[in-house]
Amino acid sequence: MILSLDTFSEYLGISLIDGHNILVRQTYRKLKPFSELLLDRVDSIFKYLGYDPSVLFAVCVNKGPGSYTALRVGITAAKTISYSLNIPIYAYTSLEAMAYKYRHYQGVIKTVVNAGKGECYISDFISSDFSIKQTSEIKLVKIKDFEKSISDDCIAVVSGINMTGKNIFPLTEDLSVEGTLMALKKGLKEDSFLLEPVYIRSA
Fold first, then answer.
1. Count of CB atoms within 10 A of residue 72's CB?
2. Please, what is the Cα angle at 77 between 71 and 82, to 5 degrees?
3. φ, ψ dihedrals at 58, nearest 5°
4. d(Cα 201, Cα 105) in Å, to the nearest integer?
5. Cα 87 to Cα 100: distance, rounded to the nearest angstrom
6. Strand pairing partners for 127?
7. How far apart, in whole angstroms, are the C-alpha atoms of residue 166 and residue 61?
8. Please, are residues 7 and 64 in contact by the beta-carbon 8 Å criterion?
9. Which of 19, 26, 23, 18 has the alpha carbon at shortest distance from 176?
């Protein structure tokens, strides 16, 4: 089994996945700091299922970009679990997981995460035959500039930004399942000593 943690946005996501079977998926709106919720919720899941954490063969975590403080909570928890159980750690970026969620779409997918102060993190992807390929690096741009870049021949998956339109798809849940399935498929194993949140500065 693999435990997945996602803390990049206002949604705290915890999933327990066995192969392609989703045993548990819990999503919480950010009512208080994730640091006060995360490990307590993980412990509750194992107690409810009657499992010992030793059943885990890996842990997976969202490394952002997103809320830097919240990402550090998730990554620190994932590292702690990895160390204590001596299991590998996988990680994925929020922007690629957002695109992967819409992998059934054929064409250009733009993903965007609110970075605060009128800015956002963005990246572009091409989806073809349920395969996602990143076509631009992660950038930090003004939200108004991103809005101008949206055309009718693409879809935009947005997190934390109030945007509307026929090709705008707001993210309304965590990425713990999609991100983990993608990370396992692509073999996105990380060095637990070097893993840090994705942090993009203004140009």
1. 16
2. 125
3. -165, 165
4. 30
5. 25
6. 107, 132
7. 31
8. no
9. 26
The predicted model gives 41-58 an average pLDDT of 94
Provide the mean pLDDT of the chain: 93
How far apart are alpha carbons 149 and 147 in whole angstroms?
5
Q: In Å, what is the CA distance from 129 to each residue of 80, 133, 182?
A: 37, 11, 15
Query: What's the pLDDT at 203?
Result: 58
* Six-digit token string for 89: 């750690």
In the predicted structure, residue 31 carries a pLDDT above the cut 70 = no
- Quick check: 32 pLDDT over 70? no
In tens, the pLDDT along 104-134 reads 999 999 999 999 999 999 999 999 987 899 9
